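Page 47, continued from p. 46.
Same chain as before, 588 aa.
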Amino acid sequence: MKRREQSQTEQLRQALAEREAQLQEARSRLAAVEGSTSLQVGRALTAAAKRPGRSLVRLPRDLYRLWRRSGTTRHTERRRPGAEPVRSFDAERQEARLLTGVVGGREDLLVVATVVGPAIQQAVDPYVRTVPLRPHDAQIVMDGVDVDLVLVSSSAAAPGSPWAHVGDPAVVDRTRALHWVLESAAARGIPAVLLDDAPAPPALRALGFDRIHNGDAGVPLHQFNPVAADLVRGPEAVYVRAGAGDRVPDLLTDLGAGVTDVDSPGLADALRAANVAVIPGTGPDHERVRRRAWACGTHVVAHTDPARTGGEDLAVSVPRLRAAVPSSAEQRTMLRQVFFDAATPVRLAEILEGLDLDTDTPGAELPLRGRAVAVLADPAGEAEADQLADDLLAATLRPTEVVVPGAAARLPGVQRLRAEGVIVRSARFSAPDTPEELTRDGDRPRIGALGTDGWAALAERATAPWAYPWTGRVGADRLADLVCAAECSGADAVGAPASDGSEDTGGDARGQGFFDRARTGGTQYVFVSAVTPELARTPLLRRGWNPAEWNRRGNRLLALGPDHGTAPGGGADGSAHSAADASTGAIG
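Result:
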């Protein structure tokens, strides 16, 4: 029987079980109704009405008997077995996940059974709920855990791995265990994907996967990023070897360049410390290393054949880039491109696109849900509402939703956002002794008069994991850079570095608007004790805490300073100057 037919048979069998449970429940309810006192009284009255002669004489006696029996418990009467409640497939699925230790009921992560190499495992861990399978317990785990996807990588067959040489005819036991996992997944309608990221036995690809993806899981930005790059010490140039037998060019040795391998655990630190990385110019590792170097903010020079060229091109490019520290504009441009094109959530979304997942399981959009942003705004009038619409519709990362006060939801700019497909939610709030909503925009209470409580009221209506309090004009790339910085660092809030006074005292921020954008500071991708927040986790904003207290309450704050590397009018500069110029709409 084919896998698709097995899946349909399993679905029909489940549907039949549900219909039988519903029929049993209906029978139980019918028996309860027939045995009820109300129905028996109704039958007695109906019989007396149909035969008035004899039935009217027996009616008082019958009613008295029913009354006596209704108040007694008949312990000696044989009871019918109780009917099982109607149980849907989704309820049984969530119960199975709870019993097996896999979190059920969460809608933000897929549950994935993995047979992957360590690099793939570390890359996907923040974005999916993994259930690692091993050869000796694969059948037990698959029988006891309900998953959404089976993910296998060719790198799992590398020597030293628990699944080493899987697919090789000489390793029958591991191949048989993986084949059973794939057959079990097919019978339950669970798709299986192979990431062909490394050389592996050809038989591995023939085991029966729903999709074979050529490549790895993308660039894990939580590992490869420019966070605290200025604190990493190392040579200004690094040569990334494609393999142990790759010879380092003599020119790089004379320049004192460092050496690392493409699969080295210290690759990220080596790239962060260097200004230029020399990578293999050909082969499957070229694109993978180039993207990782960009994510770390490092210039890249491709080296094709050290034996033939002898470093002729390197003699010009390496010394020049070695002495040139990448500017903040270059750093953000490279990182932003990786964020949109090659990051792990993007790659997972590509892999999941078109797969036949369960009907209740979100598909390709689920890995990217962690990038959803709700913009919180309180435009004072039509001009500010139009500016809000212009900013958000021109952003390279469009927000998922916009939350505004109820009175502002009727402004033309907000209506334009709704017409463009942006979800608009409205919140009701009021200041003390102030009506909740007045007809004139100038008379209604502004969030600026309510402080953090006003932003908390808007955040209560937001459903996205991140919130951006909009207080003025922003550049097209600013929101993307903030979300990218949060994905790289795992911070709770990202913003411009706080001024010296607010950072030293921890409380001077009360003297200015809580979300005023800082006018000074050039710190990039560094954890600090105080920021003027621009992007924060939505639950954090809902608490209504003063941002000056966030660090002392255990939250991680990342500074993302303005970018002064491009001329005015450019995309990067527009986002940078927006951070310095948006203090006009601060919370008062």
